[in-house]
Structure formats: C-alpha cells, structure tokens
Amino acid sequence: MYSPQFKNMRIAYGFDEVALVPGEVTVNPEQADISFKIDSLTFDLPILAAAMDAVVDVPFAVRYGKLGGLAVLNLEGVQARYDNPEEMLVALSRAKDPEITSLLQKIYSKPIDPRLIGERIKAIKDTGARCAVSVTPANAKNFAPLAAEAGCDIFLVQSTVTTARHVSKSYRGLVFSELCQSVSIPVVVGNCVSYGAALEIMRNGVAAILVGVGPGAACTTREVLGVGVPQVTATMDCAAAREAFLKESGRYVSIITDGGIRNSGDMCKALASGADAVMLGSIFAQSEGAPGRGYNWGMATPHAALPRGTRIRVGTRGTLQQLLFGPSSVTDGSQNLVGALRTCMGVCGVVTIGDMHKVEMVIAPSIKTEGKLFQMAQQRG
Amino acid sequence: MYSPQFKNMRIAYGFDEVALVPGEVTVNPEQADISFKIDSLTFDLPILAAAMDAVVDVPFAVRYGKLGGLAVLNLEGVQARYDNPEEMLVALSRAKDPEITSLLQKIYSKPIDPRLIGERIKAIKDTGARCAVSVTPANAKNFAPLAAEAGCDIFLVQSTVTTARHVSKSYRGLVFSELCQSVSIPVVVGNCVSYGAALEIMRNGVAAILVGVGPGAACTTREVLGVGVPQVTATMDCAAAREAFLKESGRYVSIITDGGIRNSGDMCKALASGADAVMLGSIFAQSEGAPGRGYNWGMATPHAALPRGTRIRVGTRGTLQQLLFGPSSVTDGSQNLVGALRTCMGVCGVVTIGDMHKVEMVIAPSIKTEGKLFQMAQQRG
Amino acid sequence: MYSPQFKNMRIAYGFDEVALVPGEVTVNPEQADISFKIDSLTFDLPILAAAMDAVVDVPFAVRYGKLGGLAVLNLEGVQARYDNPEEMLVALSRAKDPEITSLLQKIYSKPIDPRLIGERIKAIKDTGARCAVSVTPANAKNFAPLAAEAGCDIFLVQSTVTTARHVSKSYRGLVFSELCQSVSIPVVVGNCVSYGAALEIMRNGVAAILVGVGPGAACTTREVLGVGVPQVTATMDCAAAREAFLKESGRYVSIITDGGIRNSGDMCKALASGADAVMLGSIFAQSEGAPGRGYNWGMATPHAALPRGTRIRVGTRGTLQQLLFGPSSVTDGSQNLVGALRTCMGVCGVVTIGDMHKVEMVIAPSIKTEGKLFQMAQQRG
Amino acid sequence: MYSPQFKNMRIAYGFDEVALVPGEVTVNPEQADISFKIDSLTFDLPILAAAMDAVVDVPFAVRYGKLGGLAVLNLEGVQARYDNPEEMLVALSRAKDPEITSLLQKIYSKPIDPRLIGERIKAIKDTGARCAVSVTPANAKNFAPLAAEAGCDIFLVQSTVTTARHVSKSYRGLVFSELCQSVSIPVVVGNCVSYGAALEIMRNGVAAILVGVGPGAACTTREVLGVGVPQVTATMDCAAAREAFLKESGRYVSIITDGGIRNSGDMCKALASGADAVMLGSIFAQSEGAPGRGYNWGMATPHAALPRGTRIRVGTRGTLQQLLFGPSSVTDGSQNLVGALRTCMGVCGVVTIGDMHKVEMVIAPSIKTEGKLFQMAQQRG
C-alpha cells in the first residue's frame, strides 16, 4: 500500500551542483559592464564586503571604495564600541586559542557608543568613498537616523532570517515600511531565501535584499536548526520575486547573494542564478591589511558561519588589488575575482550583469567529489 | 530493446538530504509551544529518552521528568534483572574491550524478575514523575498488567519491525487490539516505517507509534538485512497514516521518530516531516549522570544499531540541563536542543509542533559531503 | 538554443542505492522457504558458490552440497589441469607478491586434461552431492558431453558478456539452442544484464541465467571498457525477461545474480530485485578450508573483478557453517547469510523467494557515505 | 508560496555517471572497424594526440602517425619558438619545482618564428606521416597559409571557448567561414560544448569540432569561471548538432571529445555519447619517449587543466605501442586503449564507431565513490 504524499519537496541546488554553459556568441571580456546599482547609486563592482569586524574597518572601506566596491561597516562590532578599535583587533589576532572565547565575549559586551557611529561614517565619507553600515533589526530604528545624519549612503538591516512580519507578544517588531519611509537613504534587508518572504520585504520599500540562510559548508545553521536553502535555488527564488515585484511596481530591487561563495566560480554562478551582486566575507579577510590580520571570527547571530566565540585562521593571500584584479598566481578562483567574472561573461557571451541572469546553467553534480577523493588518496598514499 | 519495468521504486530521503525553508513570517522563539501529547497526557518537551540501559535508569527518569520530558525504562535490561543494577552498569563501564562481549552476554542472560518491574516503576512514580516502560512483543502480555498495576503511565512495545499481524505456525503472535483493551494505560508500538503498517497498528487502538527501521549511519540493519527506510520519508509516510486515521476515526495517534537523529537540526527536520516528538538515545547517553557513564551499548534486537555485544564510547558532553536548554559551547547541534527547536520554529514562523508539519522542506543533497572532505583534507594536510 | 536529445538514458541502481521496506505483515523467520530451483532440481539454499579456484574444489563442493547449496567447479582452472591441484593451490597461497603474476601465468598455461574433468565430477558425485561445472563458450561444445557423461548435474557457460548471437567471420560461435538440445543436463548461461539479451538466451532453452557485468566496486570492467550495469537494475531487467518468457513459453528460467554482493543485505536486495538465487565468490573464499587459503585470484576473463595475474588477500573469517548459519560475532552482514535472509523475509512478511520479488524497495541513496566519512575522520582525528 | 521558476536547468552527465550496456549481439573484437575520418582523410585510430608540448613533438608525431593515429603539433609552443626545442624540453623536465613558473614564463615569451612552422611541418611530412597543427584564433589567419603551404594536412584552431561569433569593439574577430574558404586544408575548431554553438561553427565550413569546456576533475575552469559542461552531455549535444547539420547540409562534421578522458572506459563512453574520435593529452604524456619526459605542463589558456606556470609529474608508464595495443600489465584502463575499445565494441555488439553512437547508456551514479572510500579507509586503517 503506497503512502499518500504528506508533503511536497522541491530539489534545491547549491554552487557545487551547477555549472554555466558557454554561449553561442563570445564577447571580448573588456567590454563587460559589471557595474551594479542599489537604488540610484551605481558601483563599479558587483561585490560587497561583508559587515564583519575582521573584514571591514574604516581604512578597508576607504581602500575598497576607491577600487569601486562597497564595504559594509558593522555598527555592532568593535568600531562602534571602542574609541580605539585597532587595539581590540590586534588583541583578537594575538590571542591564543584557549583565550579566544572569553576575549570575544568580553570585547563584544561593551555597549555601543552612538557617538562613534557618526564618527566612523564621517571618517569614511571624508575621503570621498561611499559608506554603508549594518545593524540588527533591534537597533535599526535607533541607529538609522544617526547613520543617515552622518552621511551614510546605505543602511543594512541583517539577521539570520528576516521577514517583513515578526510576531511577538512581548515587543513590537521592526516595521520595514516605516523604517524605509523614515530614513532618507536606501535600506537593504536580509537575510531571506524564499520567494514569498523576499516579495513581502520588497513591498515594504527596501532597495535591495540579501540572500542566504545556512548556505555554506562551514555554516552550522543547517546542523543546529535544520534550516537552510542552498544558494543557487535561494538566489533564483528571490530573483523570481524581484521580477514579480518589478512587474507589479515598476521598481527594481537588487538581489545580493550573501554567504557560501568560496571562489570566483561561485560568484559567477550566483550572478547567473539571478543575483545583481554578491557579498563576500572570508575572501576579503584574506587580503593584506584586512582588519582581521589573517583571522576571521563571529560577532553575533547574523554571521551564523562563525558563531560568537569562534575564530578561524584564514591566512593572508595577497593584496586587495590582487584579490580583485590579479595577477593570480593560483588557479583555485580565490584571486582575480573581477578578471574571472569578465572572462566568464566573455565566454558566456554577455555584456551586463542583467544578461548574466539569462545564461544557461546545467545541473552537473559531483564530478569534483571523486576528483578530490583521488587527490586525497594520492597526497596521503 | 528496453525492459518493461519489473518494480516501481520511490525515492526515500534521510535527514542529510533535506533542509527546512524559513517562513514568510518570523515568530519570537519564546512564543513557541513545544508541548506534545500521548493520548491525554501532555509533556512539556517533544523528546523521549530511549529505552536503553545506558540512557535511562530510575534517577535519570526522575530528573528528566522534572525537566518536562518522558524517559522510557527498558523492562528487559538490568533494571528488571538485578536488585542492584548500578553494580552491573559500573561493571559494564569499567570492562576492558576484549571482555565486553562476554560480560554483556552474561549480564543480560539473568532472567527478568517480575517483582523488580513494579519496584522500579514505583520508584519513579513516587517522585511525582511520569513513568513509561518498554518491552518486546513476546513479553508484552505478561508485563503489561504488572506495569499498569504499579502505576506506569505509558506502555511501549518495541521490536526492530513490528506489524499488527504476525504470522507464525509455532506460536500465537501478540494481538495489539487485545493488549490495548486489556490494559488501562496508553500503549505505544514500534518500530514501523510504512503507511500501511502504521495505519493498521493505529486501528488496533494504540496511542502512538515509533517510526524508524535501519535509519542511522551506525545502524547495521541495512547491511545485514538490506532493510531500512530513511527517516524523513518514513516519518512522512507514518504521518500520512496518522492523518488518514484521524479522518476515519477522529482519533489523533502521535508519531514519534526514533533513531538516526544526531543533532538538533535532525530533530527539527523530523518534526517538519510530520513527527509529534522524537526519541533520542546516544545524545542522552552523553549527558552527565547518564547510567552508561560515557558508554552506550546494545542490549538486544530492538536496538539494531548496537547489537548485543557491542559497546561504544560516547563520552560525556555536559549536563542534562545544558543538553536540553543550553548554554551551548559548541555549534554542532549537540547541545541546547530545546533552544534550537524554539529558534527553528521562530525562523520558520510557527507556534506549535502541529504547525511545524506544514513547514516547507527542500531536497538539498550532499552539500556537506564536500565540505567534510575539505575539512578532512585540511586537518590531515 | 536547447539541444534535441541525442540519446535517452535510464537511471540504473546498485545495491548501495536501494533498501527494502518492511511489510504490513511480519512472518516467523523459521517459516521462510528459501529453496530454489534450476529446472527440476531443487536446492535448499538460494546461494551458488562461484566457479573460481580459490572458492570451489572437490572437498568444498562436497561440504557445501551437504549444507544444501550448489558449488560450481571451474573446468578451466587447476582442477582440470593438474592431477594434484592441491599442490598448485598451496603454491599460489604461499607465493610472494612479486612472484604471483608469473606463477599464475605459468600455472594456468598448462593444458586442460579432459580425463580430469570426468574424474573431478565423479569425485563429487560419489559422495552423493550435486555437481555443477563451468566452462567458457569456446570449450562448451567439447566439454559438455564429457561432463554429462561423468554424471554432472548442471552445466554452466560463462564469459564476461554472453549473448545468444555472436558474430565472427573467423569462427562459428557457440549456438546455445544446439548445446541445450545436445546435452541431457540443464544448461546455465551468463553473464548478461539486459532484458533483450536475457530473453533471447532464454529462448535458446537454457535453465537459468547469470546476471552481472561490471557490477562491483573492485570490478575493472567499467574502467577498462566503460561497460557495466549496476546489479539491482540488471537483475530487475533480467527478471522482467523471465516473466515475459514465462508468459510466452510457460517455462520458468531462474535468474541468478552474480557479482557485486558484499554482504547479506546485498543478497536480500538481489532477491527482492527479482533474482531466484545469488552467486558468491569472495565471501566463500573467506571460509575456513576454502581452497584459496585466505586468498582469491583471477583466473581468466570470466572473473573480471580479478584479472589474471592479480591475487588479493581476503582472509579467513569463520567456518562455512558460520558463514551460512551463524552464530555471527560481527554485524557487517558477512556471516549468518541464511539467518539474515530468513530475518529479512520475516520483517518483509514473505514466505518464499518468489514472494521476495514483490517486496517494496525504495531508492535510498548515499546515507552511508557520510557516515563513513565521519568514521574515517574520527579514526584518524 | 512557491516560487515561479526563474530558470530551467537540465542535468548534465560526466563519464563517472554513466555506463554502457552490453548488446543483444556480441561481435568478435577483431572485426571492429575503428577508423575515423576528418573530411576525406581516414585515420586508423579514433584517437588524436593533444597539441601540448609535453605530448607532441616531431618524433612523436611521426611515431604516432605510423601507428595509425593523428598527433597535433602546437604552433605556439617551443616547436615554433626555438630552433632547438629539445633543449627547452629537457630544461623543463629538469627544473626544480620552485623554478618552474618563471622558467615556463621565460620559455614561452620568446616570439614564434614563422620560419619554424614550415620546418616542423615538413619534418613530419617528409617521413610520410600525416601532419596536424594547432593555433589560437588570434594567430589563425596568419599561420594557416604558412601551414598549408608547408604541406600540413589539418589545421586546428583552439581556445577555451570558441564560437562562430566573437564580439569586440577593439578588434575584428576571426571569421571561420573566411578561414575555411581561404585555406585548402580541413579546419578543425574548438572547444565548444553546446548544440547551438556547435551548429553555428559547422555552418562556417569546418571539418570537425573539438568538444570540451571545463570537463575534468583537475580542470580549474569550473572553479575559476563557474563554466563547464560534463563531457557526456557536451558530446551528446554536439553530436545532436552534427546530426542536424548533416540533415540540413548533407555534410558530416566529425565530433572529437577533448578533455576529461582518464582511461579506456571514458574513451568508450565518449564514443557512445556520439563522438567520432577523442583527443588525449596526459595519457600520451605518460608514454616512453614523450617530449615531456614524465611531466606535463600548461602552455596557455587552451589547456585549462594546466594553466601556464603549472607542471605536473605524470610519470612514464610504458611504450606508445603498449599504451595503444597492450599487452597491459595493469587493469585501470590506462593501457591497451585500442584493445579495450575493440573489446567494448565486441560486447556491445557493434562494428563501427558510427554504431557505437547507438549503444545504450545508463545513468549509473557513484558506485565507485563508496568503493574508493573503503579502499582509502583500508589503506590507511
């Protein structure tokens, strides 16, 4: 006796399970236009630097801004807690492994100083660079006016899973439509992974959404909560919401894939899945001069891959310039991200990120798994 | 020449192959109602402690009952064979590996003493805690009245595979409808995995069924017998039987997923697959004060993962309190099970376990496999 | 522009990818009738011992026959080349690794002595045991009369891939219909894997067919030739041919799954896939007193898993009695094959091998892969 | 709320995921006709040697030509840059690992000497062997007349991804129809992987196309660009284009699968996927007397598996004769390629490569993965 179906399940795909198909036309990579927009602001590079203390501080934001990118400063990290955040960053990079959990807990227990919010933003803006900042929903209403007043260009609200409707008997949740109307700058909200949730957030007036819940191999959200949608499918579903919302409203809300991207190939796949840009953390933490000094760590729940109390060694692999524009001495897709994207667009025969959304993708599972087993066997044999 | 189809095969899914999709609404985790019912008895926690000697003894059952859970005492283990079971448990935890097989065989060959059945049950009930006990079908008819008389709240009948109809020329099998009518307390029966078998058992008047045959990685049922259904599909099919039986009878029979759950994420997936509760063994054996003292072992066929004669070291990872409610110092889903469940319900936007049954699940295969290969390569490189 | 489909491909399944579903009825394992028939000959056990020198010699055939099974003697191995084959078997088990290839080549280059064919068969028959022998197609016509005359019960013709029609300009291939008519004893032919090939061989009058081309992990047929069909699908397709042939002719031709079976679980799956029996090699080579003395080796092309020149250490794991009937001290399905089969039939609720063909199977991929990765990581961590 | 589908994705298959099904007829392997044609030129072997400096030099091309194959000389390697290329090849094989990148960069920065193009081609042609040469699109127009004049038989134009239309504002791309009309010898173009791209290239008058973008486990195209189609699907799609083009034009354009082939089994699968021939690199680099002297290295982008600057040790495994015709002392499909192909055609019951295109293939995923895990565990256990 066969069972009636209790629940319907779709198959969801991650970066490892898909590949792009070259086009019927090829294009000179130099002709690729890789710019991307949040609201009316245009950026040369479709790559955001994630709001993590080990990735973005003021000097990084300035340097990255000059190269055409957008770095997001976390307003709940050391930058807005300490007059001299440098000191804390150095301490975190020098701490021995057994001390790190208590040190992190101590450092991040200092209250946020609202005065520092303005100071950091101004320090970035004074150089002429664009400035983006990130907070959790609980702090959004209070910090948004301070940030806007200080000249911030873009305001991000991030938590592991964010929806337009939060149900609570004990407090009134953040209402994004109110936030978007009350601040004069574009609001970006994340993270979400589904069509319905994305569409509803868009209807609240946000300028962009961040896509990704439990995507990466290192991310424990899936082990702890059972929750997570692989990024190719998550991006596609949110991109479908963007198209639906564009049709209903005439407004284009950008989709930013955040999390699980380990190399330039994954970045290209995210864009082909419908993203307008990607957000990277660990890859930037590996650049020379990154505030993490060869480490990355979790500050709080928004960065589920690194729960508070964990610090991982990521190393330093080259300058920010090399990371973005090469030349690359390695062939694993960890350097020359922009060059790789341009080449990808060239072989796929597309000129804009919007065209990338139409590139054919195939499900091409697991060919690397066996290759890796071979390599492992050989290295150890 | 293509072959006509000899046999139709459905795809069955396990915990590793699915993931939950966050909802369009989020809910304050504190509002989640995670209680669960067997018949008219309500429990604060939807987690049963498995009927294994290394998991449940009288003190554990009392402690766990006070925390809101239900522990199941095995009436065919040391508790009902020895006046002083403690002595045996200590011996088992101290035995050296080469001695363990013969020691287990010796310890479990002592006959069950019916007098001890009542004694153990009363010891639990005297503290005010609820009491559940488990036997194999062969002993059900004899022990059920003793248990009920001693004040037992719930009576479990468990074997590797249990059906409502057992065919034998040499003996008359257990008739569940007779058992359910003859004892005054709810009867829970397992294990089963299919719609048809579950439905038929329900029609015999049981209060709940246990789901799981050969589910886990460590379980040898699949290697030895070729038999086994991955738990997501098994739970879904039995939940479909529950819905069908509810429609035909108006009675709600709870579904308890038993086996293969390694972390809080798996537990959340089981509930989203249609389970009303889960039953855990090894995770509880790892709690401080568990009778196994850092070990777990197989007592008999009902626990196919641990055939009689095998003992595995599971270690001690924290207090029962920590295991259930945190705080968690690790991020692998082995601690703070209740906190994880509440957070999962929050991000999925549901308030009751019943709502959990409607949460969207996707098939998200194997993304961790490659991640693990990477980790292994790095740890060893 | 999407491609028109160049070729249609079905999915084929192997043992690792499927699992049996317990039935709605359970049956006392003692009631299972596991006998199997080739033509009018009935055997107590549905397990053949493979025609390999390391598996079957005269004493093994006699011992296995007494336990109810059928052992197949290879007429192209040492048994029919040497008056004293024992001497060669001892030499092969004592040779050092660097010597083994040349020793194998030397030993198997001695011509077959037709006189010994009769001698070996008589030695088996004189004990009252049934006798089966195997040859390659090239020797079938010459050796079949000798074997039949000596009292042989069953005559096998085996090569890597056998079809009813062999095209050659330089020689006239074996015509199975002529062979079957010319010899008075049942002819069993293999190996084949597809519906069409199996059906055509059946129409030539054979009594049973052997199923399996390139099935096992160790088998190099797939790496060398690209050829191979996983055994679950291969068995199902040949079983479909059996059903079709039964309908068209009224004759039942037994299906014997040969190759790729590593444990009792695989054996149960083969039977549930439609096989009437299985043929095992390495598992028998591991029994005490097996002629291989803890080794197994390839003699010629029919045993593609072990190309001539390769010898592998399989070890000795227990008596033939233990292997078949237990008791089993291990839980990996390598012992107590018959007990496992009976238990499997019990939980699946079936009484005959024919009923096994109707047991539900699910596609349950890869749950063990991750489990194994874990185990490996832990053992090495 | 389910998402509307953003993008449709087909499943693409690689060699590891398919297997050939034996036929209903078997054929004497000696009767197999394995010849293959490019335009009006017939070759005894359907195997090209890849245009890599470590694989093909003049002596190799001559030796391989005499055995019936076609070797392709790279006109952008050392052969057309140095009067005495031997010296450079020796230097590259003797360099220590830390020196190799700069040595490669230095060696390949010397300008190509057009005079040497004619010299090398004549050196091959003077022996009576056929000669094929390869260039990148940028050099095609200039070098084609030189090659044709020197007596070259076949002219290859290769880059990672080649299409019939290349869009650039800064230069006029290569127009294949012009190239094909202007040179008197057959033009072969690659690499491509899709139906549309292949069809369009065919319409430009080419004689054959090379199939493969990012196919192999070692190939970094997929990690760096996210681009790549597994070879079975890529070959099938291009073969579908060949059939469509044959119907529309009456001309047969050969399909050559290039890349990702690790053993004779993969080669057989490529032919069964619709290829008329295959192109091999590393396997030939392992033959005695190969110019790489036990190494292989990347010269430029056309060989994405080996980016410029990387050299890998491939070892020397036997003579070219052994590699092609055996005898094989190993069973991993790395030797006796022709014998394996003939045997494959025999068991599949086909006589020509064209018949191979009709052989049934099944999707037979990953059975070897677990086998390999076992092996690894055992080797290390």
Can you tell me about this structure?
4 copies of one chain form a homotetramer. Chain A is of the alpha/beta class. Chain A has one domain: TIM Barrel (Alpha-Beta Barrel), CATH 3.20.20.70. Chain A is built from 15 helices and 17 strands. In chain A, the strands form 4 sheets. An 8-stranded parallel beta barrel of chain A has the order 6-7-8-9-11-12-13-14, surrounded by 5 helices. In chain A, strands 2-17 form a two-stranded antiparallel sheet. The first copy, chain A, has a two-stranded antiparallel sheet with strand order 4-5. In chain A, helix 5 (137-149) links the parallel strand 8 (132-135) and strand 9. The longest helix of chain A is centred in the middle third of the chain and has 19 residues, at 231-249. Chain A is globular and about 55 Å long. The N and C termini of chain A lie far apart (50 Å). Mean pLDDT of chain A is 90; it is low at 367-381. At the C-D interface, strand 1, strand 10, helix 7, helix 8 and helix 15 of C face strand 2, strand 3, helix 7, helix 9 and helix 10 of D. Strand 1 of chain A pairs parallel with strand 17 of chain B, so a sheet runs across the interface.
Distance between the termini of chain A: 50 Å
CATH architecture of chain A: Alpha-Beta Barrel
Largest pleated sheet of chain A: 8 strands, parallel, barrel
Strand runs of chain A, count: 17
Indicate the CATH topology of chain A.
Answer: TIM Barrel
Largest interface: A-B, 62 and 68 residues
The CATH homologous superfamily name of chain A equals: Aldolase class I
Structurally, how many domains make up the residues of chain A?
Answer: 1
Beta content of chain A? 15-25%
Q: For the record, what CATH class of chain A applies? A: Alpha Beta
Radius of gyration of chain A: 20 Å
Mean pLDDT of chain A: 90
Strand order of the largest sheet of chain A: 6-7-8-9-11-12-13-14
**What's the oligomerization state?**
homotetramer
The share of residues in helices of chain A is: 25-40%
Shape of chain A: globular
Alpha-beta classification of chain A: alpha/beta
What is the count of helical runs of chain A?
Answer: 15
